[in-house]
Design a protein that fits this description.
Structural class: alpha+beta
Oligomer: single chain
Number of strands: 16
């Protein structure tokens, strides 16, 4: 599968809740848990020790054909593909695929970052199918005559059959992952930094394709962000204790300056992302976001940029000559203080799905506090951890002061305290809701504007 750069994935209608599909999936989940005590016990541990709900990390559910019909799948909003097996894919909501097979046991297939890590954490001596370092692996964790809980890992693989990888491909994948993890991020010339990063990505795409490359690239991006964010390290350790990794990621947020936004988008499109929809925080906030989706990985990017009101209607994601605005807003000032997200700054925040009440209580017990929620609905809840403060390089402060963007007081404050750098986001989705809250995003993006923490000249 390949995508043309700049191709859009614009939704044909606003995102809405999918209660019928949710009821079907929840019913299958409860049926499997009732039949398999080990799965029920793990679900309890998962929630109590990480705040994650099992339903949020299901990759797919295998269902006996006697249990689900084509008519039921279609009535609940699933698109049906094939006949044997029959696969239900929900394109308007976030749900596990439903794989309908004759004489199959009801199987919950849970996604983790590494099947081997999960088996080690759970002390499971079971066979693992799929090549180590490949794009798809799976293992049966617990089973009986009625139901199964299996674990799968995906790195850009579509479907449920084991891929065949040449040994040279597996070696190449590890080599490109190492290159992404070790890549140079600090450049005196930002354009040279984007050129170097693009060259690394192109080399990997030529060897592995965009989807495998994207999975490896985002893994390295999360690792870089995690090293620079205390809340991330606390929560990642809790998830790793169960062998999960960041299996519950929902989206990553990148900030970019106006000058380099088109290069950020270009790199993401090389990785298989496609532009999906746009958000604008409003004229007062002065900036907006291009949302991109990777259809194979199912993950999303929020790419943030300073914007004037008249620019929302145009294709600002691909404009190579965006002129500076009269003043820097949230995304521009963040990049001026810390650098481009695609380079030295790394992602602004990672958003993962949880039971929001459970995660907040668990992190507060671990000493991690939350900001006020910016979405609080039955179908969508979002809040950020308190920001990680990063030191700011003196030459960046000097340049902002000389250009009149910040005052002497602000410069002194940045030198003494640094500036807010990154967050972890606590996100809960219900009823399969796939969208976001435009007013809430507008609100929070003003709240995390560096100007909220220091006086800045307008």
């Amino acid at each position: 599968m390949s995508f043309a750069p700049g191709a859009l994935l614009e939704p044909v209608a606003p995102w809405v809740v999918q209660p019928e599909a949710d009821a079907l999936v929840q019913g299958l989940l409860q049926e499997a848990l009732a039949a398999l005590p080990e799965a029920a016990a793990f679900r309890t541990r998962l929630h109590a020790e990480t705040g994650i709900r099992l339903v949020d990390i299901l990759d797919h559910i295998v269902v006996p054909s006697s249990r689900v019909t084509r008519a039921l799948l279609e009535r609940t909003g699933f698109t049906v593909r094939g006949n044997s097996p029959m696969i239900g894919v929900h394109e308007r909501g976030i749900f596990p695929d439903l794989v309908v097979r004759d004489q199959a046991r009801l199987t919950l297939a849970m996604q983790v970052e590494s099947v081997a890590d999960f088996c080690a954490a759970q002390q499971l001596d079971v066979p693992i199918e799929g090549a180590p370092g490949g794009t798809y692996r799976h293992a049966i964790a617990w089973q009986n005559a009625q139901a199964v809980l299996s674990v799968v890992e995906r790195h850009g693989h579509v479907g449920f059959e084991l891929p065949v990888h040449e040994p040279a491909q597996l070696v190449a994948a590890q080599s490109h992952l190492e290159a992404f993890r070790r890549r140079r991020r600090h450049f005196a010339d930002t354009g040279a930094g984007f050129d170097a990063t693009e060259a690394l990505v192109r080399q990997a795409v030529e060897a592995l394709g965009p989807h495998w490359t994207c999975a490896l690239f985002l893994r390295a991006e999360r690792e870089y962000w995690e090293r620079r964010n205390h809340a991330a390290r606390v929560q990642k350790a809790r998830q790793d204790a169960l062998g999960l990794g960041w299996c519950n990621d929902d989206h990553h947020t990148y900030d970019a300056s106006r000058e380099w936004f088109h290069r950020t988008i270009g790199l993401l499109e090389l990785l298989g992302f496609r532009c999906r929809e746009r958000f604008y925080a409003g004229a007062e906030a002065g900036w907006g976001s291009q949302i991109l989706e990777q259809p194979v990985l199912g993950t999303v990017i929020f790419a943030d940029i300073d914007l004037a009101p008249n620019e929302l209607e145009g294709d600002f994601a691909h404009a190579p000559d965006m002129q500076p605005l009269s003043t820097m807003r949230r995304a521009g000032l963040w990049c001026a203080l810390h650098g481009e997200s695609m380079l030295e700054a790394g992602i602004n925040h990672l958003e993962c799905t949880y039971d929001q009440v459970a995660l907040r209580a668990q992190l507060q017990e671990a000493g991690v506090q939350m900001m006020a929620p910016f979405s609080n609905f039955p179908h969508l809840y979002q809040e950020l951890t308190e920001g990680e403060w990063w030191p700011v390089r003196p030459e960046r402060i000097d340049a902002l002061l000389a250009s009149g963007i910040i005052t002497e007081d602000a410069a002194r404050d940045f030198r003494e305290r640094g500036a807010i750098g990154s967050h972890l986001e606590n996100l809960e989705r219900n009823f399969g809701y796939k969208g976001f809250n435009q007013p809430g995003i507008s609100q929070v993006l003003r709240i995390i504007d560096p100007r909220e923490f220091v006086p800045v000249s307008e």
